[in-house]
Design brief:
single chain; about 525 residues; alpha+beta; eight-stranded mixed sheet; five-stranded mixed sheet; binds histidyl-adenosine monophosphate
Length: about 525
């Protein structure tokens, strides 16, 4: 567990979770009848290494005896199913031999039966690669007695999740999430609203535009069971108009029918009873307070009565945030309240929970679709472009000086043409290029170019005077001149001046989306090449 920087200020701790957990944990929390648990988990048996399968049929009786011994010692799980299967296998073993006394068909039939049961023995604990992390966070919360910590306990995690889904754009079998969970005694809707507001401002900061927040309440254990009954009975009436998956879900998990994307089913689903009309007074009050709290914070939302989410642990608030450029897999974040989960997994009943997970693969895809960098991902801040003869020597010296002072500098290869060098710089995320061309050397000035898309249209070149024989002092002067220009841009754009260096100033201007003003404030020196 760790807490640092901005996290510590908000008393949020990072929790490092295992990548695999007992299958049972997900079955109990996410739910046996969900797609995630029933179809999508990567599950294996943690078999004892010292117990290899028998090499020949003749060794089957010894193998069965071995299973019995390991079950007694607890190495193989002593489940009810294992005990019964072992009894059957012991009976069958007696009937397998001697083979010569049986007809071929009879012997084959007995062996098939034997292998069928043998296959059913669970030789080790069932383990699954985590398909999501909320269940693991709650397990850790209980295991480490975190209910004794000051509440609410705020935990975040970053890492890969695994689901055996049909791969397509934005849907992978190994994908990455950043998630956070807030656990404690309060279920105040203001917490839900604050969490959602924080998420949206996070997306704003990384310049993920065009997001939409969808929100719903799916009730609690007092009102949801009756709604599910009603939904099931209404679904049975329209069963013939639904596809095979939805037909199956009528019995296993009728709420999931509402999630269907099958075109032909949409008209049927739209006429089904809606949970908002069947919430108990407490859930209704919680939901309307949540909407009020969102409005108070100026958070735009869209209600979606069909947002039931694919995990059983949710109660009351559910939400999803979508982003453009992703096609059908357009949810970049999903979350909700899960007040009964801590108790279900053996923790204190009073603990409530709410959380979210952001799918970072999809966030990156959406940003890329709008040709934006993921914040902080650009490799270089500055480029020094001068690639021939004397300009190359000058460029190397300038780049070295800037690197020494902490800037990340892109230096195109010797001989690269100016246009090509600037294109390469733009692709490398460079924000400002310092051009050291023949003309510049002749005029003893460097040209500073603010790169597209950071500065669109208008005047984008400026220049700095430089000594023809650049001494170290002259280079330092160029650097401080550059810094001064950046600061002037920042001031003119409303950012307060301070003791920022080149790197931090550029970063700040990018974060705040501050671009150099069109009319530079320092007169003709700023009006372009002079
Ligand atoms: P989830 O909606 O299953 O929720 O996943 C959250 C996000 O992970 C999705 O919105 C999506 O961006 C991303 N994601 C899911 N599956 C894939 C995939 N196959 N490929 C790429 N990205 C994917 C949860 O996982 C809950 N544990 C969230 C939560 C936390 N609820 C409460 N606390």
């Amino acid at each position: 567990m760790e807490s640092r920087g901005a996290g510590r200020a908000r008393s949020i701790c990072r929790v490092r979770l295992r990548r695999n957990e007992p299958t049972e944990l997900f079955a109990r929390s996410v739910g046996l009848d969900t797609d995630i648990v029933s179809k999508e988990m990567y599950t294996f048996e943690d078999r004892p290494a010292e117990f290899p399968p028998p090499p020949t049929m003749g060794e089957m009786p010894a193998h069965i005896e071995g299973i019995g011994r390991l079950m007694e010692s607890g190495t193989i799980p002593r489940t009810e199913s294992n005990v019964n299967t072992l009894k059957l296998l012991n009976n069958l073993v007696g009937e397998l031999y001697p083979i010569r006394e049986k007809t071929f068909e009879k012997a084959t039939q007995k062996w098939i039966e034997f292998f069928f049961y043998l296959n059913g023995v669970q030789l080790g604990e069932r383990i699954s690669l985590r398909p999501e992390a909320t269940a693991s966070v709650v397990r850790a919360y209980i295991e480490h007695g975190m209910h004794t910590w000051p509440s609410p306990v705020k935990l975040y995690y970053i890492g890969p999740m695994f689901r055996r889904e049909r791969p397509q754009k934005g849907r992978y079998r190994q994908f990455y999430q950043i998630g956070a969970e807030l656990l404690g005694p309060s279920d105040d809707p203001a917490l839900d609203a604050e969490l959602i507001e924080m998420l949206l401002s996070f997306f704003e900061r990384i310049r993920l535009t065009g997001t939409t927040l969808f929100i719903n309440s799916i009730g609690d254990k007092n009102c949801r069971p009756a709604y599910i009954q009603l939904l099931r009975s209404e679904l049975r009436k329209v069963r013939d108009r639904l596809g095979a998956d939805s037909q199956r879900r009528i019995e296993t998990n009728p709420l999931r029918v509402l999630d269907s994307k099958v075109h032909e089913e949409q008209a049927v689903i739209e006429n089904l009873p809606r949970i908002a009309e069947h919430l108990c007074p407490d859930c209704k009050a919680h939901y309307s307070k949540l909407l009020q709290e969102l409005e108070l914070r100026g958070v735009a939302y869209k209600e979606n009565w069909r947002l039931v989410r694919g995990l059983d642990y949710y109660m009351r608030t559910t939400f999803e945030i979508t982003a453009p450029g992703l096609g059908s897999q357009n949810a970049v974040c999903g979350g909700g309240r899960y007040d009964g989960l801590v108790e279900l997994l053996g923790g204190p009943a009073a603990t409530k929970g709410i959380g979210f997970a952001i799918g970072t693969d999809r966030v990156a895809l959406s940003l890329q679709s709008e040709h934006k960098d993921v914040a902080g991902s650009s490799k270089y801040e500055l480029a020094v472009v001068g690639t021939t003869g004397d300009t190359w020597n000058e460029a190397i010296r300038l780049a070295e000086s800037l690197r020494k002072s902490g800037a990340e500098v892109f230096l195109p290869r010797q001989g690269t043409r100016l246009k090509q060098a600037l294109e390469q710089a733009a692709k490398s995320g460079v924000r400002v290029a310092i051009i050291v061309g023949e003309d510049e050397l002749k005029n003893q000035r460097y040209t500073i170019r603010v790169m597209q898309p950071f500065y669109e249209g208008g005047q984008r070149d400026s220049s700095i005077a430089v000594s023809r024989a650049p001494s170290y002092a002259a280079l330092i002067r160029v650097r401080s001149e550059l810094e001064r220009k950046l600061k002037t841009w920042a001031v003119a754009s409303g950012l307060a001046p301070s003791a920022f260096g080149i790197s931090s100033l550029l970063n700040l201007m990018m974060q705040q989306q501050v671009l150099p003003p069109k009319t530079p404030p320092l007169g003709k020196t700023w009006g372009g090449k002079t």
